[in-house]
Structures are given as C-alpha cells and as structure tokens.
Amino acid sequence: MSIAASFEIEYLQYLDADGKLVRKDLPEFAKNLDHMVELYKLMVSTRVFDTKSIALQRTGKLGTYASCLGHEAAHVGVGSSMKPEDVLAPSYREYGAQLYRGVQPRDVYMYWGGDERGNDYQKEPARHDFAWSVPIATQCLHAAGSALAFKIRGEKRVAVCMIGDGGSSKADFYGAINFAGARDLPLVAVIVNNQWAISVPRRIQSGAKTLAQKGIAAGLFCIQVDGNDIIAVRKAMEDALERARSGKGGSVLELVTYRLGDHTTADDARRYREADEVKDAWTREPIKRLRAYLESKKAWDEKKEEAWKHECDEWMDNEVNSYLETKAQPIEAIFDYTFAELPADLQKQRALALSLEKGAH
Amino acid sequence: MSIAASFEIEYLQYLDADGKLVRKDLPEFAKNLDHMVELYKLMVSTRVFDTKSIALQRTGKLGTYASCLGHEAAHVGVGSSMKPEDVLAPSYREYGAQLYRGVQPRDVYMYWGGDERGNDYQKEPARHDFAWSVPIATQCLHAAGSALAFKIRGEKRVAVCMIGDGGSSKADFYGAINFAGARDLPLVAVIVNNQWAISVPRRIQSGAKTLAQKGIAAGLFCIQVDGNDIIAVRKAMEDALERARSGKGGSVLELVTYRLGDHTTADDARRYREADEVKDAWTREPIKRLRAYLESKKAWDEKKEEAWKHECDEWMDNEVNSYLETKAQPIEAIFDYTFAELPADLQKQRALALSLEKGAH
Amino acid sequence: MAAITLIEAVTQALAYEMTHDPSVVVLGEDVGVNGGVFRATAGLSARFGEWRVYDTPLDEMGIAGVTVGLAAQGMKPVAEAQFEGFIYPMMEQIVCHAARMRNRTRGRITCPAVWRAPWGGGIHAPEHHSEANEHLFTNVPGLRVVLPSSPARAYGLLLAAIRDPDPVIFFEPKRIYRQYKEEVPDDGEALPLDVCFVLRDGSDVTLVTWGAQVKECLEAADALAAEGVSVEVIDVATLTPLDFDTIAESVHKTGRCVIVHEAPKTAGFGAEIAARLAEECIYDLLAPVERVTAYDVHTPLYRLEMKQMPSTAQIVAAAKRTLAAS
Amino acid sequence: MAAITLIEAVTQALAYEMTHDPSVVVLGEDVGVNGGVFRATAGLSARFGEWRVYDTPLDEMGIAGVTVGLAAQGMKPVAEAQFEGFIYPMMEQIVCHAARMRNRTRGRITCPAVWRAPWGGGIHAPEHHSEANEHLFTNVPGLRVVLPSSPARAYGLLLAAIRDPDPVIFFEPKRIYRQYKEEVPDDGEALPLDVCFVLRDGSDVTLVTWGAQVKECLEAADALAAEGVSVEVIDVATLTPLDFDTIAESVHKTGRCVIVHEAPKTAGFGAEIAARLAEECIYDLLAPVERVTAYDVHTPLYRLEMKQMPSTAQIVAAAKRTLAAS
Ligand SMILES: Cc1ncc(C[n+]2csc(CCOP(=O)(O)OP(=O)(O)O)c2C)c(N)n1
Ligand SMILES: Cc1ncc(C[n+]2csc(CCOP(=O)(O)OP(=O)(O)O)c2C)c(N)n1
Ligand SMILES: [Mg+2]
Ligand SMILES: [Mg+2]
Fold it and tell me: Fewest Cβ atoms nearer than 10 Å: which of B160, C246, C247, D139?
C-alpha cells in the first residue's frame, strides 16, 4: 500500500483537572509565577464580570447575554498570548480574551444593552480588533483578510479568530483556513469546543474525531488542547503565533472545554442536556485547577482570593454604573454612521425622523 | 506526547502510465476482460464525442463547451461503478459518467446549445440524476440532501457528487461532507483533481498535500487515486459505494488527473500554463494505458479500434443531427416551467410575449 | 379547541402535515430536542423522531442545499433559518437552484420545499436578529414569498406552502408570535397562496401591509374611524406572485393608498406595489401613494430599535395626508 | 490617446488607482496571470505582482469575507465576482458586514471595498452567466450600487468607487464590454457617485435606465425623434443612494416616464423609481409610468435569451403609449 500523506493530532495538557502537572517541560512563561498569578486573576475577574452580567440581565437591565462561564482558561489563554499588534476577530463570548486586550466590561454591557457604542472600543490594542460577530463564523474570514493584509504589507503580525464547535461547521470557517493554507497567511484559527452549539451536541455537529483535524483539510498545523488548562492553551497559542509570525503558516487549535451555563440568557439548557453531564464538567473547570496549582506553589491563598474578588466586585460595579448612566444615543445616531457622508435622500429622512422625535416630546 | 488522532491517506494505482500492472490484487471486475473492453469503449466514445463537440463549437453550432479531454478514466470509472438506483450530482464536464447512465450526447449538445431541454434526460437512471450544475460545488449539497432522503426512507442507495480541485475550495463542498460525516449519510464525494481551476493551479488553490485529506475534516474515509487509471478509480468507487450502502458512512475520493484541453472553448490555456506541462501530462493520459493493457491481454487490437471509432463517429453524427434538427422552443417555454401552475400575473406577461412574438413575425 | 398563538399555529400546521404526509421533514439548527429557539418545532422530535425533525450542523448554506436535495428526491422539507438575518448563506441555493430546478429541467426535477424564518424586529433581540429582508426574494422568479399575520393565517398559509409543488419562503413576524390567541381548528384546511386578505372594508383610503405591521394598520384604521374616516386594510400575505387585483380594486374604490412595511424604504417591496399603482391605476389615484416604512438605515440595536419601526401615528398621519390631497 | 472599450476602461481605472495608491489590491478567481475571464485585469499581475493582483481559491464567500478583512485593515480591495450569477455566496459578508461595519462600530472600523462583477445578459453565455440582479443590493443601507454604461463612465465611476470610503457594488454590463470605443483620458478624474447622467435632453417623454439598456434607450430616442418626439434619456448609473432629483426634474418637464431594465419586472429597481414618481411627482404625470423590463421568469438559456430582453421596439411602443395617454 502506498501512502500519500499521514497526519497526527497531538493532545496538549500540562495541568490535569486537579491542578497537577502532567508534563515536566513547563513552558518559559509558566515558570514565571507572577505572570501565572496575573492570568489567574484575569480568569477570576472574567468570571465575576460574567456573574454580574447575568444578574443585570435577570433584573431587566441588559438584553440577551452570552455567558462565558467555564471558558476562562481558553479565552484568557488566547488573549494573553497575542502581541498588541496582532488582531483578534472574536465571536460573541470571548470576553476573557478581549478584556486582556483592553475591551472594558462597560463596552460589553453597552453592546448587549442594545447600544452600538459598545463596539467602539476605546483602548489599544482592542481598538484595532474586530467587534463581536453575531453571524456565526463570518469573523474567520475577516481574520484571513487581515492576515492577507499583513502579508501584502510585509508586517510581522498575526490575525486570530475564535469560533465555536458549532461554528466550525459553517462554510466561512473552512474558507478562512483554506485561504490561509493556500498562501501561508499568518492566521491562527481557534476552535473553542465547548461541546454544545445551543442545543446541538458535538456528536452530531461533526463526524470528525477531533475538531483540530479540520485544519488538515487546508494543510494547516493542527493541535488539540485541554481548553481548561491555561498553560496548555497559552503554550499552543504561543507556538502557533510564532509559526505564523515567522512565515511558516497558519494553525488550527481546538480548545476542549465545556459551556457550563445556558447558551445565552434566552436559552434554557435543561431542555436538552442532562444535569449529570454538567455536574461532571464542573469537576474539570479551569479556575479551580489553576488555583490548586498556584496554591501548591505558594503563589496564591484564600486571603489573596478574597481580596481580589473584592477588587473585582468594585471594578465591575463601577463598570455597571458607567453603563447604566450612559444615556441612549440621539435619533440622529441611526443615520450618521450609515455612510461617511450622508447622501441627500438620507438627509431628508434624517430631518423627518428629527421632526417626528420633536413632535413626540 | 499524547496523540488524539492519526490518519493515513492511501494512494491507489493498478495501471501505470504504460499500462503495466503495479499490483497483483486485481479487483474482481477487472478480471472480466469483456467488461474492461466495455469500459475502454466508453472511454473512447467519450473522447470522440468530446472532439465532435469542440468542432461544433468552433463552427458556431454550439455555445461555450467544457471539454472532458483527459478525464475519461475518472468519469467512466465513476459512472460505471454506480448502481442504477444511486444518484449522480455532476458538475458540468463529467460526460463519461453520464453517458454510462443514459444521458445522450444530444442532451449535452442541447444544453451547451442554449436549450433547457438538454437537462431533461429521458433515459433511466440518468432521468433521476441531477442536471449539470454551473454554480460550483452547489451540487455537493444536493447529493448530501439526497443521501439524507435515502437514509430517512431506509433505502439502500448512495448519492455521488463530482467536483473539481478548485470546487473543493468552495464552502458547499465542505458543508456536504460535514453533513454526511455528522450522521453517516451515504454520500461519496469525488474530487476530480485535474490540476487547474480555469487558470488557478492546484498549488495555490489549497495548502493541503492531497485533496483527499479534506475528508478528514468531516471524519469521512479518504483516499487518493490515480484518476487516469480506470481500474483504480473503479475499485475505489466500488469500495466507497459499498461502505455507504451498508451504513458505514461517506467517503472523499481524490482522482488525480489532468485537464488536457482548455478550461472551456471560451478559454485559452496558453495564457497561463506551459506547453511542456501539457506535453508531459499526455504521457499519463488514461486511454493509451488502458489500450496497452488490453492489447497485452489480447483483448483489443488495431482493427477493433478502427471499427469502434468508426461506430462512434456514426453514433455522434447521428446525435449531432438530432441536435441540429431540433427547433427552438416556442416563446411560451420561458414561462411554462416557472411554476407548476402559472400565476395570474405571469399569465398576463405570457400573453404579452405571445402577442409581441406574433407582431414580430 | 383551545385558542393558540401565531407560533403555536406554526407548530400545529407542521404537526398536521407531518402526520398526514410522511414525506414532510423538518430540518434546521436546534429544531430537534430543543424545539427551536422560538419553540416552533416544540414536541415534534418526540413525536416524529430525530430523522424527520433533523438537527443540522451549524451551516445555513448546507441546510439550504440539503433541503434542495431532499426536495429533489421527493421529500417535502421544511427548513428553518434560525433568524431571517442568517438567511444570506442560503441565497445561492434558493435563487440558483430551488427557484429554477423546475425550469432548468423542464419539469423533470422540482423543488417542493419551504424555508421558514422568524422575521422582523421589535423583540429587543441582538444584532442581525431583527431584520425585515423579504424584498431579497421578491425579484426571484419561481419563488413564493409568504408572510402570515395571524394564527389562522399562519396555519392555513403554512399548510399551503408545504403542499405547494414549488419553493416557498415563509417569513414569520416574530414580534406577533405571541401577541394574541385565536381559535384555529386543526382541520388541515389550507388558505390560498394567490390572494391578498382584505382585513377590513373601507371606502376612503386603502392601507396595504403585511406581517407584524398589520397590527399598527388596524390600530390606525380604528383611530381614523373614530374621526370618521373609512379605511380598508389589506394584508398582502403572499408578496409574490402578487395578487395585485385585490389592491387595484380597493384603490379604485378609495383613490388613496398608504403602503406600510418594516423594511427600509428604498427598493422595499412597497415600491413594487406603488409602481403597479403608478402603471395601472394612475387614473384612480386621488392623492400621491404614500409609503410608511423604516428609514434607509440598518436596524438599530434595541435601545433605538423602535424609532426605526413605522408607528401607528405615522400611518395615521400618512393616511390623513392622502385625504388632504386634492 | 487611443480610444478604448468599456472593459479596457475598467482595466485603465484599476491600473491608475493601483499606481497611485499602494493600498489598492485586486482579488478574485483568475484575476492574476490570466487577467480575468473577460480580461478586465489583463496585464495587472505583471505590473503589480501576485500579491496585489491576487488569485484566490474558488470560494466566493471567502473572497467576500477576505475583502472585508482587507478593507478593515486599511487596504482598498477591489474584489471580482466572476459573474453576477455567482455573487450570492458573497451576500452575507456584503450585507451583514461590509455595509454595516461603519455603523456597527460607530465609525471605528470601515469598509472601503469594491465588488466588481460582469453583469447582465446578451452574450450567449451558459446558465447563471446572464443575470441582472442589481435589485438584490438596492435595499441594503450603507451600500452603493453602481452600473456604468460607457467607457468614460466606467473609468470615472470605478475610480470614484475605489476612492469611496464605503462599500460599492460595481456591476459591469458585459453585453457592451466591447460594443464601441471612445477616448478616455487616463487622468485619474473620478465621476460623482451621487448623480444620474442625462444622456440626451428632451421634452416629451423621459426614458430612465441603466447598464446595457442605455443602448436600446438611445436607439429608441433616435427612432422617436424621427417621428418628431423629443426624448430625454437618463442613465441612473448609481442606483443607490439614488439621485431622484434629476429624474423628478425631467418628469416635471416631460410628464411621461418609461423605465427600462434588464432585470425581471417585479421588485426590480424600476419599481423604486416608479414608486418615487407616484409619491412625489404624481401631479406632474400626464400618463401612467411604464416599465419595460424582462418578464418575471428566469433568464432563458441562450437560444431564447433575447426574447426576454427589452427591445428597442418595446421601448418605443411604451413611450408612444405614454404619449397617447390623456
Ligand atoms: C449564521 C448564524 N446562524 C445561526 C446563528 C444563531 N446562533 C447563535 S450562537 C449559535 C450556536 C453557536 O455554537 P458554537 O459555534 O458552538 O459556539 P458557542 O455558542 O458554543 O460558543 C447559533 C446557532 C447565528 N448567530 N449565526
Ligand atoms: C460559484 C461559481 N464561481 C465561479 C464560477 C466560474 N467557474 C466555472 S468553472 C471554474 C473553475 C472550476 O475549476 P475546478 O473546480 O477545478 O473544475 P474543472 O473546471 O477543472 O473541472 C470557475 C471559476 C462558477 N461556475 N461558479
Ligand atoms: Mg459551542
Ligand atoms: Mg480543476
């Protein structure tokens, strides 16, 4: 039998569910415990933020909200590995990655609170990142296009897109990795496999043994990672970014994690999944294990935990207040960003809207 | 290092470019020399047909035409392996597969001659096959949908789609194999890799080492085949069809061949590819090697060749005449197949068109 | 017989037809165990099994093409786009294949498929969940575009859509999914796909609309009636092929027409109706044809969303302008 | 200065802008060494290299999304859809992203991209190569839809489209790609995207059209002139945002309007123009507004294709009907 090609998909894990190291070759960044604490703190603050968001929604102060509960290692791992000059194209729940890059909780609240200004990130590097992308998988192509721009201009930058297990079924995901593979564009496509796409389980979403192997279709480097282990996520990302940056081409990472909450606040997951499965998934969640690890290294303790949670609470309250105090945009705002310059017809409609608005008050 | 999954893509070949057997395990069908002669004859008639089509186009009697020169083994191999109850969803140049299933040369002429009746195949099993599909890759999903219908109804039938190397970049191809993989639908997706998508070479179409490996993304069985070797094509197809029919799931086959002609009669390949490459490809073309093999087995000779070619000429002349004698459809035909029953508004437009037609004559 | 909402009428129609015709299958994202994000397919998976109520991978292009394939094999697929804003990847299959399969093959292969999608704004949903994009399909020959506006019409028109031998786009105004209940006998009676419904007779001005705006138009008619103006309200229901005769008759009587729709104004389907009036009824018109529509801007996120939605007051004002005209 | 065809004017505009603005890149299927299936990008790859004249994989959805990504990064991509009939997979990216990027981000990210596509019928091409589907994009806020009808307008409008800070759909009427030549100075002068072009002044009837039908309309104007009828011919050129004022002024003068387009009638862009006339100019109208268009059927394969295309005779007849009206 003649073999035309063969492939192996590695599974990467450093920290097991109990926070024990399962490999000896700790990556450089992980040897720096201060840095590991910084990552841990962002994971915790992401969760505090998430809890607050759901509470806001439940009390009618926020529209539909997509929780990131359980994804903290995956998200913070991705965000923290990128350089400022890189570009992130998220979908809609990767707050952990975005907070690292300067998106503010108040932006998230504004967005889910029905105000476009939530997408107008003020801080670099988030300011040059893409906004949330609701049409599933479309953002992958924006990343591929960005990667092409970097390549054309000879810039050493990498475009990263994040996509769900479900989203990796959609055509655009394939288009993006295929574009990248055909010309070695600096693209890192991160599949956050949280086992569910709303109510559709991973099992009937795809017949592939791993989602990482989708990258084989485009000739990209592929790896499957324990997405609840931030060391593994961060390491796989650093390697992928380095490969892309140095012209060696794109990668597909599958981060295996679990959506511990409902799909969004508009969803009720009890309709379609077993409580036992969720209970079981909690035993592997990302924050607990990193804390166990850091505590075993004497880098963290209960007091620090309390203090940090308190700090997060204050931070988030401040963000919530800033959000709640923001007045709605004036009616003109629905016209003024349609074009760089308002065409004549729209000027008339804008005037009409303004006059109706005045009439109404 | 822990390995999550591993894959091998086999390359299948029986007959080398000179018609020598390179494997001992000849498949059952290939031991039947009468059948091999039948396949050979269809490959030759397909080429005669193709030559005639180009001549028709050059003399202004046919519109744009997509030649199948060089694809005869791939096409006849696919068509001959399918059972009548299976369904074929071709793209636009797989005449060799279609002729086997009852599409008539006159149908092809009608279609490229600008007459919808060319799609109205009269003979079974072609009558239940899909028509040519111009929007690239869209037919793959029709095959996936057919496969789903078979599965729902518990029918032991298989849907086969054919797609080019270029077409395998398009989203729908991925969608089709992903749908099939997610639920083990009886789909066989055949990539006819003829190295070119109009002017775009395989090299910049995809970064994948083989196109067969695209099936890994969907968890399908994948194999790369010498597409100029009809024994290999036929064998890979029979296996894939059997797997699908028996509920073991879908496959992706890559048939490696070469487009010896222009993309279509509207194209001039000299603009973008080297004459040497084409010359070299001719040394591997499919008909020559099968003839050498059959002659070595004393199953074919020059006299038979002459006689068969003569028969083909007559056959095609007859088809051409039938085509040329067919009058254009009446003006009503542009209305009457829009809906099962013509809506009131369209009835008015139809009456208007008829009256204009009368006025014009 | 319990009174049901519009969305329950959708479920009732699907269940009826699946019971009576084994070739009917439902497919889409989350239509199975979850019963659809709006519960349109609630309970169907348990009754008809996971192969006839088929949870697809997340791939609208795939759903659309698989639907064409199913239909070509003699099934009657009812595909769901989770929201109208996600229907774009379906367009190639709908426009290039579903709508032309019969024509391409001179009737050899047909496409008796339905694409359902929750449609329109007004429920405080996120971006891309509140569009009114019916116009996209109205210039496509071979396609029917249907938009019910009451539980009874949802039931009867959906049955008709499934039974229709040609492809149908079936948009469901999600703003009124649960607005009110009415008794809808589960008798399998379809409604015709080739007529507009005159919801209210009147003689002074004609309001022409479809989908959720039927509500605002009926309110406007009430308000105008209180001022002594007699308003005719027409629910177009099946946009294409259009039953223009019903509209023409009404305008012949009233001489005045206000067209109301949720989609942006420019090249919305209201334009077609106004154009037909300008072509065929110009001598009947006693006043300019008015269009009350969304502005030519993107549906704003929900804080400003309703500012973009035609209001009852705007409709009343437009009707009065037509009455004030010479 | 040699006279050039419409397609050569496209090439000339691309080359000019690529020379003067390094952020301009061209991408699409076969645009590179092959120079495009219609030769619109002939010679560009040799001049600007394979990264600025970028042969993409065969994936329209991919091309569209990569184009949005490029534009978001400050490039000025000019993407090609090989034929208008293959533009459907591009729609999600164009409608959901390109057209709304500025609005979504309050101006933080923009999309200065152009999508070019050969458009329309009349060249005996295979199925899906002869559609007139401009209406698809005309209901999308935030988008410009442009259709040149002469070499000079192709050059000037394409330059304007590339320089425009917002996304533009640029349809090129392939039937007149090589119809005639005219001198088009390569001076980098753009034409405005916010006006209709009055190609011929007249006082009795206004013909409004765009794309290849400009030819038939001018012929009809000549034929009518021979019978003493003075015809004004307007090339809309930029369909959206529409310069309705030019049309309104003309109809104010002539009182009669015939709208001519290659797309099917129902919900074609002609409807919008007729609707505006019915709304804003009804008192100027001396006759019903006429639309001369394709029927509401699929573009037939080429043997019957021209039966579906509006002819000069039909335009003349429609104009005469308006003149005969009271
Ligand atoms: C094109 C499109 N189709 C459907 C939806 C509705 N939708 C929103 S999220 C979602 C599931 C996504 O699942 P996955 O990709 O696994 O990401 P996750 O939500 O689990 O992070 C669906 C179907 C959408 N937003 N866009
Ligand atoms: C959606 C779509 N895009 C573009 C085209 C134009 N086109 C026709 S054939 C072709 C190349 C196809 O190449 P490949 O898939 O390798 O098949 P081959 O022609 O080599 O058999 C292209 C780009 C099309 N028909 N459909
Ligand atoms: Mg998921
Ligand atoms: Mg090819």
Answer: C246
CATH class of the domain whose range is D3-183: alpha beta
**Assigned domain for A315 exists:** yes
Q: pLDDT (tens digit, 9 = 90+) per residue, A42-89?
A: 999 999 999 999 999 999 999 999 999 999 999 999 999 999 999 999
Q: What single-letter DSSP state applies at residue B75?
A: H
The domain in which residue B47 lies consists of 10-329
Predicted-complex ipTM score? 0.98
Q: Identify the CATH assignment for D197-324 out of 2.60.40.2150, 3.30.420.10, 3.30.450.20, 3.40.50.920.
A: 3.40.50.920
Residue A358 and residue A290 in one domain: no
CATH of the domain at A169: 3.40.50.970
CB C117 within 8 A of CB C170: yes
Q: pLDDT value at position D293?
A: 98
Average pLDDT over residues C123-131: 95
How does residue C67 score in pLDDT terms, banded at 50, 70 and 90?
very high
Q: How many angstroms is it from B98 CA to the middle of ligand 1? A: 40
Q: Same domain, yes or no, for B91 and B24? A: yes
pLDDT of C247 over the 60 cut: yes
**Which residue's structure tokens are 């990498």?**
A158
- What are φ and ψ of residue C129, in 5° steps? -110, 10
Ligand 2 centre to CA of A178 (Å) is: 16
Measured distance CA(C161)–CA(C168) in Å, rounded: 6
Helix B72-81 vs helix B33-58: angle between axes, to the nearest 10 degrees?
130
Confidence of residue C80 (pLDDT cuts 50, 70, 90): very high
Element (H, E) at B351: helix B344-360
- Average pLDDT of the segment spanning B105-110: 98
Contact C206, C290 (CB under 8 A): no
Task: Give the pLDDT confidence of D193-249 residue by residue, as tens digits.
Answer: 999 999 999 999 999 999 999 999 999 999 999 999 999 999 999 999 999 999 999
Please state, rounded to an integer, the average pLDDT across all residues of chain C.
97
In this predicted structure, what is the pLDDT of residue C1? 75
How many domains are contained in chain A? 2
* Cβ–Cβ gap C274/D278 under 8 Å: yes
Distance CA C168, CA C143 (A): 6
Residue A133 in contact with ligand 1 by CB distance below 6 A = no
**Cα dihedral sign, B56-B60-B61-B67:** positive
List pLDDT tens digits, range A162-185: 999 999 999 999 999 999 999 999
Quick one: tokens of D135?
């209406």
Q: What angle do CA C135, C136, C138 make, to 5 degrees?
A: 60
> Following DSSP, what letter does each residue of A26-87 receive, concatenated?
--HHHH-HHHHHHHHHHHHHHHHHHHHHHHHHHTTSS-S----TT-HHHHHHHHHHS-TTSE
What is the rounded distance in angstroms from the CA atom of residue A182 to the CA atom of residue D56? 9
Residue nearest to atom 19 of ligand 1 (CA): A197
Catalytic residue among C20, C97, C124, C129: C129
Segment 49-88 of chain C within 8 Å of chain D by CB: 61, 85, 88
CA distances from D264 to B165, B346, D131, D226, D291 (A): 35, 11, 10, 30, 10
Same domain, A120 and A40: yes
Q: How far D22 CA lies from chain A's nearest CA (Å)? A: 10
> Is there a contact between B135 and D128 if contact means CB atoms under 8 Å apart?
yes
How is chain C split into domains, by residue range? 3-183, 197-324
pLDDT of the residue at A7: 98
Bridge partners (DSSP) of residue D259 are D208, D291
CB environment B299-310: b (16+ within 10 A), e (fewer):
ebeeebbeebee
Q: What confidence tier does D1 reach under pLDDT thresholds 50, 70, 90?
A: confident
Read off the amino acid at residue B95: Y
